[in-house]
Amino acid sequence: MPLPDAPTSRWTLLRHALLYGGLGGVLIVSLQLIEYRYLVVTHSFEIYGGLIAIIFASLGIWLGLTLTGRPERIVVQEIEVRVPAEPVVFSPDPARRDAMGVTKRELEILGLMADGLSNKEIADRIFVSENTVKTHSSRLFDKLGARRRTQAIHVGKASGLIP
Amino acid sequence: MPLPDAPTSRWTLLRHALLYGGLGGVLIVSLQLIEYRYLVVTHSFEIYGGLIAIIFASLGIWLGLTLTGRPERIVVQEIEVRVPAEPVVFSPDPARRDAMGVTKRELEILGLMADGLSNKEIADRIFVSENTVKTHSSRLFDKLGARRRTQAIHVGKASGLIP
DNA sequence: TGCGAATTCATACGAACGGGTGACACCGCG
DNA sequence: CGCGGTGTCACCCGTTCGTATGAATTCGCA
Lengths: 163, 163
Hints:
homodimer; mainly alpha; 7% strand; disordered N terminus; DNA-binding
């Protein structure tokens, strides 16, 4: 109950409801068939009722245990073992750069883009005109297969071009 | 559209449960009525069978819920998480989110932004209009102190809002 | 049950962005 | 020396983005 995002989703609930209904229908039909064919003789009601009672009681118990979910709470404790991982200082790897045909200037602009700078701000930062930044970024987008600067940043990070 | 992200309030859950339960009940009752109208004379025991089934199923559920001792087992699983390259397996931390007053929807949009999607693509992805995405992102920029989406992504990553 | 927050949608407008093209200069290499 | 790659800059045009404003609806909570 205290878990708001319990694994028993709405779908699970619905599935159980459907399963229950379906099983009930199948049982009723099959029991009727059985009764008509083999137990129609005498005193079938007792057998019939008994079977229904037993089966549905079992089914109910199973449902009671299942519907409410397993009464066990699994607490997952994550123990983080930090392995060296990436070097803290990002090294502008020329290999990755050349592999994609990205020039130094383009990579530089990509990094400034990732820092959230606009074209104008980038232009002022590296002392070129805004148009120059545009041409660089256009070529960069071509090489990265991106259509937006955000996409270029995403690809650049995924490719290890920028930290 | 209710994607699995939505919290799906308890009320909605309850409503669906009641709906399907009610449907099942109506089905059973109507079936029994039909049966009663045409077969009550010769097959009245089937009604009793149904009653027995319902009663024993309820009894079984009750049994399953109460009689069977259900000790709450707390299973603590300790998992060693080795971090190779990327920082940590990112978990959407509501604390960080609340600390900056960012709503779930805004955070969701920020994440899609960081994946390089345009407003239109985000709108299509989460089934809202582009204007809605614009509204969300505007408010998000206010809260993050950003003026561009790239800047918002940068701030979001620096703040641990997004991986 | 009422209220504030959250979500949704719309319109309009200016700013930023991206594509396309053309141009010029520099540098290294054959 | 020509040639390709790179860097720089400009213009135009269409798209996308961001802002402002208003409003309706739903949700969560007291």
